[in-house]
Amino acid sequence: MSLPLGTILDHPCPECGSKMVLRDSRYGLFYGCTGWPLCDAAHGAHKNSGEPLGIPADKETKKARMRAHEKFDLLWKRGHTTRSNAYVWMQKAMGLSAEEVHIGRFDEEQCEQLIERVEHALELYTDAAMDHLNDWEGLEP
To answer: Is the dihedral of CA 67, 49, 31, 97 positive or negative?
Structure first.
């Protein structure tokens, strides 16, 4: 079921505190600040349902999330494990619940912690060792 356009997001705009509402554009659904054009904050939405993609964040937190995703994605994009198993590893490494294990919910500090843990994992395990990990159970945070 898709949310109707104009749905108000539970979280206020991270830049100005105004409400954010579901809108459509040529690029798809998104939550836009009602303070536009004075505030241009936007937050992604699932293309089919309109549900928000994580929690809205200010510009610095968005940048931190992008850095964290770029580093984290190396774990599975290099073919060492599946994307699902990488998220299981993240959940354990960060001590998160299943609902919390989304970078789109992270604050800047959590992003930096994830980057450090991924870098540590990549340093500890050579490509050859990672290739033999099936479920990442042995990869300690």
So the answer is: negative
Q: Which two tokens stand for residue 136?
A: 């990442």
Share of the chain above pLDDT 70, in %: 87
CA neighbor of 67 nearest in space, from 111, 27, 34: 111
Q: Domain extents for the chain?
A: 1-56, 59-131
Report the alpha-carbon distance of residue 87 to residue 102 in Å, rounded: 8
Distance, C-alpha 122 to centroid of its chain: 20
For 52, phi then psi, to 5°, come to -65, 145
Task: Give 41-81 pLDDT, tens digit per residue.
Answer: 999 999 989 999 889 999 999 999 999 999 999 988 887 78
